[in-house]
Design brief:
Two copies of one chain form a homodimer. Chain A is mainly alpha-helical. Chain A contains 22 helices and six strands. The longest helix of chain A is centred in the C-terminal third of the chain and has 31 residues. Chain A starts with 6 loop residues before the first helix and ends with a helix. Chains A, B: This is Magnesium transporter MgtE.
Chain lengths: ~450, ~450
């Protein structure tokens, strides 16, 4: 059922644009969803997508603007006058409009706001611009249905019809007092099944989940997920109802959070996409590579310190990439599981129990690997048993230490309120490389004596 | 606003349980959300959490059962008779009830189903059990509000009041024909703002997004996200309306998908948690470690092949972990960005453009790193410029090749319909280790001649 863009469609659109066949284009795009049109515009040249944007009517273009890839949106916004942008924003909900304004350069922001036609809408948008984008205030919208606890259900229904005109989706009906302080809620189901003669203060549910304007968005996401909420009201410092957050905004927060952790584990420190500029990508990637390089310097020095082993046991140096790789892989596995457990709040039990478990797990895994290694180094690589034994004993030790580092570094960071995801990826592989090689050569020195 | 479990609370509950103070416990837990109680039970001993489960009433326990950690749920279900389980399920929505039944051993499933009181509910649950859990059928619930296109709005409102009794949240009102085939929808807003005298067939919106029972759940998630849907109807092969999927179920799909990709990138091949058994964790982690070990064997042989370089240029061997680490890190960075781009459907442009971009990016990054390396190897490590130069030239080449492997292997896998996430983590680091070392020593041989 999902729409798929074909090369043929793109080619046809390009042809229509070239031949200036406005009517045919309109016809072609008429029944398409705005998200699909946004996807098409992402595939087109800048000039073509700007052309398409101009021939569509503003009800559709406003939604398209919202769905567009950031890069395309920036280009299109540059082409539009403040008045034209304001016309688009008049069609959007307050939170979406505020998000788009926030992307504009500051001097343009004011110009656009002064061109907004609907004064109430403009006031709401300006209000939303005050909040940090990573907080409940930055996520919330102003569109909601609220009723006064002192109203009768009849007044309430009348008022709601008016309010509902401005609200795309009615999630909950919030109940406030005369000071606009959040008191509770009326469910939609109640609305459908309750007699119209009742009074609000007698039927509303006084228990209502809410968040404050300055609650962090990841925290809002966790609350809404945990309690299975589709919308949550937002109150200010005085408990006054100032907005609501819906689950679709939270879906984006959850996705961004997961992507950030994923990128962090891969050694990418900023939120980037494959299609970002080379400069942005370098900024996100280079710092971790420099870290790995400096870690590499340490390992060079370390191997240099053991260089007299080369006289009698040069094979030891053939195993260094193997030891480093195993230490790195084990470390990443352990840390990833812990980072996820911390993110989901699903770690239970004592540190001691975790230590015992991690050591048992590594002992089991590393023993199996050591057996493969002894057999392999003898039969496949043709090395002596003394080397095989040395490398195997080292491997077991390295794996245990690497898994302990992978497990406890994220837990420690989390204790000190540092993002544990920092401890995955290049950080853990680099430090485990160093520890791994140090352990390996130290053990080799003891067993082989050099 | 979020509930936090304190050690004191857990201690208090444990004490109450020990002293058998049922009333105090009930009092303490009365106003708590079921998700919070589930969290508490996860922290308690098995016996204690079973005790708590038994003293609460079934309206609450049913929801708790749903929120419990899988391990605790399994233990509690074992303690309950089929009749008791059926009582819990009678309180739940069809999709949640079906999910819990699916977790039971097969012989118990039938026993439980036969004990369900509400025959309609039981029929719906049995129907849902037919579907694969990774499809729309496996996600959907039976609770929905639907009206016949031939009804008047008046009949419709009456019927809806009855239907809404069984539906926790009314998302959309679906319109069907006499054969139960999905025709369109009525929005809740329409319901609030339309006069009751109209006929359904004259007011419904014939355009409605839907998925089929066998649509994959990740696909459903993508559609609902892309089109900003809070619920989507599900139709069978004949276009008949059989269920609906709500956004809260999709939130779980999105989270699981992100976690799976994350784990894959970390070399964990099954969905595991930190608190899973050692055997499960080994099964998820060991295969990747064996792969890395076998890759290590290849690198041992490779270095062995270049062992005559040890006579005059033993420093070369000190750099092997550094080269392997850089190749691995660059590969993981490139592949992670591509895998994410593929998952989000956000890659645009030709393969050729991507190739040019990736090479430019690597050239920029690796040149900066090479400068640091030349300086570092001379001033910090005290090596000759010939070694520094050799390693630097190798580093630049290795980084370019590693980034190309990281970029194009996932794209290739995706073309052949293989999950590109497989190409991140240990797979890419292991293959890049090998290629990296091969390139390094080949270049060294050319420059230094050995």
């Amino acid at each position: 059922m999902e729409f798929k863009i074909s090369r043929e469609l793109i080619a046809q659109i390009e042809q229509y644009v070239e031949e200036n066949r406005e009517q045919d284009l309109k016809e072609l795009l008429r029944d398409m969803h705005y998200a699909d049109i946004a996807e098409i515009m992402w595939e087109l040249d800048d000039a073509d997508s700007i052309y398409i944007f101009h021939i569509l009517d503003s009800e559709k273009t406003a939604e398209i603007l919202l769905e567009l890839h950031e890069e395309v949106r920036e280009k299109i916004l540059k082409e539009l006058s403040p008045k034209e942008i304001a016309e688009e924003l008049d069609e959007l909900s307050t939170d979406d409009a505020a998000d788009i304004i926030a992307e504009l350069p500051e001097e343009r922001q004011e110009e656009v706001i002064s061109e907004l036609l609907d004064v109430e809408h403009a006031k709401d948008i300006v209000d939303l611009l005050r909040y940090d984008e990573d907080t409940a205030g930055g996520l919330m919208g102003k569109e909601l249905v609220k009723v006064n606890e002192n109203w009768s259900v009849l007044t309430c229904v009348k008022e709601m019809r008016v309010q509902a005109e401005n609200v795309q989706r009615v999630h909950s009906i919030y109940v406030v007092d005369d000071e606009n302080r959040l008191k509770g809620r009326l469910s939609l189901k109640d609305l459908l099944t309750t007699s119209t003669k009742t009074h609000i203060r007698d039927v509303y549910i006084p228990k209502v989940d809410f968040v404050r304007v300055n609650t962090q968005s990841v925290e809002v996401a966790r609350i809404m997920q945990k309690y299975d909420l589709e919308a949550i009201p937002v109150v200010d410092e005085l408990g006054r109802l100032v907005g609501r957050i819906t689950i679709d905004d939270i879906v984006d927060v959850i996705k961004e959070e997961a992507e950030r952790d994923y990128q962090m584990a891969a050694g990418i420190s900023q939120d980037v996409e494959a299609d970002d500029s080379i400069l942005n990508l370098t900024r996100a990637r280079l710092p971790w590579l420099v870290l790995a390089l400096l870690g590499g310097f340490v390992s060079v020095r370390l191997l240099n310190g053991f260089s007299n082993a080369m006289n009698d046991h040069k094979e030891l140096f053939f195993f260094t990439p193997l030891i480093a790789a195993m230490a790195g892989n084990v470390g990443v596995q352990s840390s990833a599981i812990i980072v996820q457990g911390l993110a989901n709040n699903s770690l239970s039990g004592s540190l001691w129990a975790r230590l015992v478990k991690e050591v048992s797990l590594s002992l089991l895994n590393s023993s199996i690997l050591a057996l493969i290694l002894i057999a392999g180094s003898h039969f496949i690589l043709g090395m002596g048993y003394d080397v095989g034994l040395t490398v195997s004993v080292s491997l077991i030790t390295v794996i245990i230490i690497a898994s302990l580092i992978g497990t406890f570094v994220p837990i420690l960071l989390n204790r000190f309120k540092i993002d544990p995801a920092l401890a995955t990826g290049p950080f853990i592989t680099t430090s485990n490389d160093i520890f791994g090689l140090l352990i390996y050569f130290s053990i080799a020195k003891v067993i082989l004596g050099f």
